[in-house]
Amino acid sequence: MTMREFPSLRSLQVLESVARLGSFGKAAEELSISPSAVSHQMAALEAELGIALFHRSGRTIMLTDAGRVYAEEISASFQRIESATRNFTNKGKSDILNIHSVVSLASQWLMPRLARFSAKYPEIDLRLHASGDPAELRTGTVDIDIRYGTQPAEVGIAVEPFPSEPIIALCAPALVEGENGIRTPEDLARFPLIHSEVNLYRWQDWADDHSVKLNLDRGLRFDRSFMSINAAADGLGVCLESLMLVHQDLKSGRLVAPFGLEGAMINCHSLVYLRSRARTPKIALFRQWIEDALKDDEDSLRQRSE
């Protein structure tokens, strides 16, 4: 294989400056060289390319049509190099980690914890994308996908399920206060229910498990858990959600769990990535961080319930 042939970068830099400034003298001043050196560089470049880049008439120079087209291409290339260098040095990061997640987990659980990850691994620039559709990992635009629900087996794709999550009833503090507040599962028949229609465990399942009859035809309905959680915090009814997603809301007092923190244990979320990239440092570090963060939550909730 023969080496790729390029004109000298210095001569291309001189050409770009001459074309942009329209003068050998101005280019010489910008580059801190003599006008004679500029002239020699351009003559050498023309000889190397075998084509005239300039019309010369006394001290006046003008790009030929071929010279103008070539100079425009060279200028665009220098601009791309300059932009790439500026972006690279401004980041100051060794790695970029692209995470995709289902929306509710991203907003309710991951976002409040990202500062901890960045503080622990400042060399990693983490970028979070959220949507309801699974990410296509094989394109290389996403490193890790956090998905909801059962994941089908795919060749080359690793799936790490999160620990089972308790699904519990939640509401604003006002709904449990006073003589007519929520005390028992049967009391929910008197309150609006908030439905998360994409959840794996719903109010019908909860009613069956608690042997109560509820009016399941009425109530607010949402296709995102974070909407149901916010509606419950606003006092619009009682929602049924994963304890994992409401950790911060319980801690702040926006929500309370009228029947405690124990509930049906459901495998809801999974960490998904390419098996071939499992040992990539940025991916391995994020996997370990997720595991540690989930354990910290478990320990915190255990202490809360004691």
Write the SSE topology.
Elements: H1 9-21, H2 24-31, H3 35-49, E1 54-57, E2 60-63, H4 65-91, E3 95-101, H5 103-110, H6 114-120, E4 124-130, E5 144-148, E6 157-161, E7 165-170, E8 193-196, H7 203-210, E9 221-222, H8 225-233, E10 238-242, H9 247-252, E11 264-266, E12 269-274, H10 281-305
Parallel strand pairs: 3-4, 3-5, 8-9, 8-10
Antiparallel strand pairs: 1-2, 5-12, 6-12, 7-10, 7-11
Report on the structure:
The protein has 306 residues and is α/β, with parallel strands linked by helices. 41% of the residues lie in helices and 19% in strands. The chain has helices at residues 9-21, 24-31, 35-49, 65-91, 103-110, 114-120, 203-210, 225-233, 247-252, 281-305; strands at 54-57, 60-63, 95-101, 124-130, 144-148, 157-161, 165-170, 193-196, 221-222, 238-242, 264-266, 269-274. The chain has a five-stranded mixed beta sheet with strand order 4-3-5-12-6. It has a five-stranded mixed beta sheet with strand order 9-8-10-7-11, covered by helices on one side. Strands 1-2 form a two-stranded antiparallel ribbon. Strand 8 (193-196), helix 7 (203-210) and strand 9 form a beta-alpha-beta unit.
Provide the descriptors you would attach to this structure in a database record.
single chain, alpha/beta, 19% strand
Helix content: 40-55%
The SSE order reads HHHEEHEHHEEEEEHEHEHEEH
First-to-last CA distance: 71 Å
Count helical runs: 10
Principal-axis shape equals elongated
Mind describing the biggest β-sheet? Answer: 5 strands, mixed
- The stretches of 5 or more residues where confidence is low (pLDDT under 50) are none
> What spatial order of strands do you see in the largest sheet?
4-3-5-12-6
> What is the radius of gyration computed over CA atoms, rounded to a whole number of angstroms?
31 Å
* Strand segment count: 12
Average predicted confidence as pLDDT? 89
Return the structural class: alpha/beta
Strand content: 15-25%
